[in-house]
Amino acid sequence: MKRYALYLALVVCVPGLLIHNADAARSASGMKEGKVEFKSVGPLAFGPDGILFVADTKAAAIIAIATGDVKSGGGSGAFRVEGVNEKISALLGTAPDQILIEDLAINPLSQNAYLSVSRGRGPDAIPVLVRVKTDGKMDVISTDKVKFSRADLPDPPVDGLIGQGNRQSNPRRESITDLEYFDGRVLVAGLANEEFASTLRAVPFPFQTVENGAQVEIYHGAHGRFETRSPVRTFTQFRIGGQPHLLAAYTCTPLVQFPISQLKPGAKIQGKTIAELGNRNRPLDMIVYEKDGKPWVLMANNSRGVMKIDLGRISQAESITQPVPDGGVKGLAFETIAGWTGVEQLDRFDDKRVAVVRRSESGSLNLEALPLP
Questions:
Q1: pLDDT in tens, 93-112
Q2: Using alpha carbons only, how large is the chain's radius of gyration in Å?
Q3: What is the CATH number of the domain that holds 41?
């Protein structure tokens, strides 16, 4: 959900690999100093100059904060914080079961980890931003007096519970499901109050006017139909044939590619489904990286561990337009990384490691850096 670190680590030299950011020096112009008030904190992403983008899903807004965290934290050694949820709960004066880690982002300049955290459960949860330094020390990010700017989405979904029984949900909480900074824009996935509720948008930064997003349609092989109302759960960016694309993952579990050039206000676009990875599964987080001269995706899931997906032949991938029944898989090949159990969040730590939040056998959460597989 926050792959800006990759721009600093890699320059594209292989088709299909990451997009090199040619504008990493973009400044924090347009920001004002003051107090930031959140209704919630969700997906995170880093941009240039230590700027942290925070999704406030309840408010359907993106807040850019100048963290000032721009010096190397000396993260070349081991990085592991056991029981990070327990340490955060102690820091916030509550019980571990009242802490929910919403997202993880690694600052590419300092390698410090930033966590969006809900203190408490349900509608009254208190949003908190926590920083975990490379030496394991942590603090709460004060937003009482910071430089920031804000982008309010113009077409958010309804705020309130819909559905019946145990299937009730609040569409507003999915107004932003993932975000990432790319080439002077914040790419945003989520739901909108549109004919095609599933939406992708490219919001220019520094923020000015935010326009409606592109309405999205995909073919979902496991369901055997075209869909327009299910949001992208997580995405990353890469090049195909020299052109920037998004690789987006949906629940139950299609992988779909979209040209970034198509993310224009009010457009209706159809993605190319290039893999079905099995039903009854929810993608949680994903990054793209290169190893041994080949591009790969790591994707954490809630029921199938961490998948390593080969992007080497993505330009030749066929579009899936027919049903994939019985929980079957089709399209891009993948393997499940043995031993990487319980991973709930991940982000690139450096050019050789990935930072993960994962649940141990005891039920506590650990924050650690693992070698890229």
A1: 999 999 999 999 999 999 99
A2: 19
A3: 2.130.10
